[in-house]
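Quick one:
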Amino acid sequence: MERTRSAIVTAARDLADTGAEITMPAVAAEAGVSEATAYRYFPDLLSLLRAAVMTEDLVAVLRSATRSDDPVERIGQAAEILGRAVLRRQGAVRVVVASTIAKPATSKDRPVRRFALIEHALAPWTDRCGSTQRGDVEQLVRGLALVISAESLFALIDLCGLTPDDAIASLATTARQMTAAAIAANPAEPSTD
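Output:
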């Protein structure tokens, strides 16, 4: 049983890495199992994709990529990391986004990795913010979640006609500008060490 499940997960990951269209019949064929067998292990495509391709720890990637404590620089790097991760498995990410938009009840099953990534990027600043600034910090995180997202990346590529690299650069620029403006409006309280 574990071998079959592993074959299905590997097939989904391999298809996602090629950029091919991701469907349960395509995954089953790639895994060498029937579609019914694939559905026995995964009740829907969303649960399969969560197991196969939505597992990368982006916070760890940011942690290893940055040496700076500057939240503006870190948030730009976070936007780039998320954008590259989305593009690497774009077909699978589009399926996840589409399925959770079409069926809002499944949105709880959608990975929300961007929030952890944003919070980690802002940590050097937010750790110094006082309790009176928490509302502003939370608003910035919510605003950045609209920018540092697969949906924003796809809108820039699909609707604005940007190249993937230009779309990622646009996300990073906007995220940096938002963060710089928020920090300027709410400087962190001095440390009381």
